[in-house]
Design brief:
Shape: globular
Strand order of the largest sheet: 2-3-1-4-5-6-7
Distance between the termini: 16 Å
Structural class: alpha/beta
CATH topology: Pyruvate-ferredoxin Oxidoreductase, domain 3
Length: 196
């Protein structure tokens, strides 16, 4: 997968597929769209969509984001994501890594160290990153809403769009004080995410 320091970026256009895991009511669809909107601001091609079903508040849900340097001709669900983002730590199990591309990346909301998380998920040849988005959300937002913190962590791991563009779309989606607090959560997670 492409990262900012990857020399392959010049060799071929970037197409990154992200799968988000969370629960109904945690803003999984919103965070997928926020990332896509920020990438649009940065003049990239995007797709963002949820997995539809009889979800209710608290039920596991998935969201999907595609970002590319060129027009996207794929119109299917994401089966082999380059990146998996786990917003709700109660969903951390082997099934969140299902289909994850070889040499892919997982970014999880957890108190576990990346090495511990990798062992728990039984992953090899995968880059593992962890951030305590719960603590960040409670400190900054005073609510257990982790989605924007996880967006900040993702952007540190894979700079798919700029922090400035994320801040712009977050402020547009959440005007006033709420927007500023969400931008703070993004920036704090961007600094606090750790990997192995």
């Amino acid at each position: 997968m492409w990262l900012a320091t990857d020399s392959r970026r010049d060799a071929k256009p970037m197409l990154v597929e992200i799968r988000w895991h969370g629960r109904g009511g945690q803003g999984i669809v919103s965070v997928s769209r926020l990332l896509a909107e920020a990438a649009l601001v940065d003049k990239k091609y995007v797709q963002s969509f949820p997995e539809f079903g009889p979800e209710r508040s608290g039920a596991p849900v998935r969201g999907f984001t595609r970002i590319s340097d060129e027009p996207i001709s794929i119109h299917s669900q994401i089966y082999n994501p380059n990146i998996v983002v786990v917003v709700d730590p109660t969903l951390l199990s082997n099934n969140v890594t299902s289909g994850l591309a070889e040499d892919g990346t997982i970014v999880a909301n957890t108190e576990l160290a990346p090495d511990e998380l990798g062992k728990m998920l039984s992953v090899r040849s995968v880059h593992v990153y962890a951030v305590n988005a719960r603590r960040i959300a409670l400190d900054v937002l005073r609510r257990p809403i982790y989605n924007t913190a996880m967006l900040g962590a993702l952007l540190r791991v894979a700079p798919l769009t700029s922090l400035e563009s994320i801040a712009k779309v977050v402020r547009a989606r959440f005007p006033g004080t709420l927007g500023e607090k969400n931008v703070e959560a993004v920036k704090r997670a961007h600094v606090e995410v750790v990997g192995k």
